[in-house]
Amino acid sequence: SHAPAPLQGGPEKIPGVDRIIAIASGKGGVGKSTVSANLACALAAEGRRVGLLDADVYGPSQPRMLGVSGRPASPDGKTILPMRNFGVTMMSIGLMTNEGQAVVWRGPMLMGALQQMMSQVQWGALDVLLVDLPPGTGDVQMTLAQKAQVDGAIVVSTPQDVALLDARKGIDMFNQMKVPIFGLIENMSTHICSNCGHEEHIFGHGGVASEAAKIGVPLLAEIPLHLDIRVASDGGAPIVVSKPDSPQAQTFRDLARRL
Ligand code: ADP
């Protein structure tokens, strides 16, 4: 195997990739990966050439969500062929490690793996590459912003105060690194009962909208907490693909149109 190139130099474009959009969250479990997977599929359904780089090194979930498995091929031993499903070109750190194995790499190895996924994967011509980041404000976020020309970031949060507080740190970090915030997404916004359709604000309501207003960025979407979204993701076909006519899928298509 090849040692990753040393980390040096400033932000670079990935050849053939028009735009890089980072999907971030302050803490884990708020639905950042769910949003990334559905957004990618929605963009693909619109005919856009879309890639998804799963850089969530501590819990890569895109292989499961996008129904992709197996080890990516490297015919020349230098570059890596990405995987593809639902019209989305994807690569995940989860495909480079053994499933179920904890990622206990040290920082520099993680950064090397990220660098490798950006520079050695044959992404091809893409209108947009989404990067599903790990939660929080760590090395991966910094490396991405330093090494790649990130056009903007989207921060996913639940309405809960604690998730919001963490999201603020993420917003701060992107501001410091001069990465524009395209907007915020409120996930698990309202719970819609899959039985009767009754709506309830389990995690509170309006918190993300007021935060977006405060920092002067758009609220890009309010995505309901719905059983079908979780079931679809666990089943390896995001709701945008598996139930395209549902109102939940429509939420993600509306989001795709705003990007
Ligand atoms: P993160 O990437 O922020 O850690 P995930 O996208 O993995 O979060 O979501 C955590 C869990 O919540 C997953 O099981 C996912 O299917 C579920 N989930 C996320 N968003 C929703 C939603 N809007 N409705 C129902 N379940 C959701």
Automatic annotation (TrEMBL):
Q: Which GO terms describe its molecular function?
A: 4 iron, 4 sulfur cluster binding; ATP binding; ATP hydrolysis activity; ATP-dependent FeS chaperone activity; metal ion binding
Q: Which UniProt keywords apply?
A: ATP-binding, Hydrolase, Iron, Iron-sulfur, Metal-binding, Nucleotide-binding
The residues the record assigns to binding ATP are 26-33
| GO BP term, example | iron-sulfur cluster assembly
What is the protein's known function? Binds and transfers iron-sulfur (Fe-S) clusters to target apoproteins. Can hydrolyze ATP.
Subunit and interaction comment: Homodimer.
Family affiliation: Belongs to the Mrp/NBP35 ATP-binding proteins family. In the N-terminal section; belongs to the MIP18 family.
- UniProt name for this protein: Iron-sulfur cluster carrier protein
Q: Which organism is it from?
A: Puniceibacterium sediminis
